[in-house]
Each structure stands twice: as structure tokens, then as C-alpha cells.
User: Fold this.
Amino acid sequence: MTSAKQNILARLKAAQTRQHRNSALDQAGVNQIAANRIKETSRAYTETDRLNKFTTALQASHAEVIDCTKDEWPKMLIGLIETRKLTHWLYSEKTETGRRFSQDVCTALPALEAIPYSTPVEQLKETLFNQIDAAITEAHGAIAETGTLVIIPGPEEPRLMSLVPPVHVVLLRKSKIIDTFDQLLEQENWSEAGLPTNVLLISGPSKTADIQQTLAYGAHGPKSLIVILI
Assistant:
């Protein structure tokens, strides 16, 4: 065998050895990251820390967070509607939040144009895309670590309610906030059963920087996200 061939084979063997070594190092790094993650998430937040972390993370993404109570949130929302002149609303008649909105808010504001999402989208499309100012929905839960709302759309509150209106108001019970996404998977048994076919993880209003790297809000969804904590 010529010296040239020997040199080529030697370089190939050396490269293969380095590749195996790097693969082992990469796997070791992955294992270490996983171990650190488990160690980190094993330290549960206190109730106060959980709420503060969730609020701080969500506000950092330009969402509004309003601390309220179960009894007082309709009155607070009435003030917000009057201040921001949000006259056309979408709500669900099939949820507790929607019924409270209809009973307390709509009664107090008779001039409010509030439409229940109870008709097929084909019939509602014109109103939904061209007239509605805001929609109110419930959150299934939330993740403190990332400031993320967990919303599971369904027949009661279809997905378009949280994706189309310029302003999205979400009612979230503080007791539904958990620490991490890992806990969400475990709590809902999604690790074993798999994720729902339709689940929304929302960490702020819609935004994009596709055009000239300039951040713009509302390009692909709500321009404003308002979370009411009760």
C-alpha cells in the first residue's frame, strides 16, 4: 500500500474516532441538561412566587395582567370597556365566564353589542372578522415559569374566539397556575395519553418581526392580551 493511501486511511480512521467521541460527549451533555432540568423543576414555587413569576413573564411579553376577585371582575371589566371603547364583544353562553359576562356586564352596559358564539362560523364570519372588537374566554390553566396560558378550545369556546378578535380577554383562576410545562404534562397525563388535538399555549399578544426586522403586534392574531386573575 502506498504512503498516500495509508495517509488517507489514517485520516478517515481518526475522523471516525473523533465522531464517536463527539457523539459520546453530546449524549453526556444531553443527559446533564436533563438532570439539571429535573433538579431545577423539583423545587416547587411558593404560591406567591408562582404568581409573581407568571405575571412578570407575561408582562414581559407585552400582555396585561389584572389582579381581581371572582366577585369583582365584571365591575372591573365594565370600567375597561368604557375606558377603551370596546363596543362589540364575542362571548360563550355555555361557560360560567360567558354567563357572568352576559348577566353582569351586558346588563350594566345596554348599548354594548355582545354576540354569543352560537352560530356556525360560516354565518358569523363577516361579523367575526370585521366588527368584533374583543372576546372573552376562560383559561384551562397556566405555566408560571414561562408566563403561558393554557387554553383548550372546544364547542363551548371555539379556537377562533382567542385567535381572531383584536383584543383577547382571558379569565384565569390563580389556583390553576402550575410551575412548569413538565408538571402540566404530568398533571394532565399528556405524557402517556398524548397531547390534545387542539390546545393553545399563549404567552402574549400576536407579534412578528418578518418585515424589516421591526416588531409589530396583531399581525396574526390579537393585538392585545388581557389576563384577569381571580
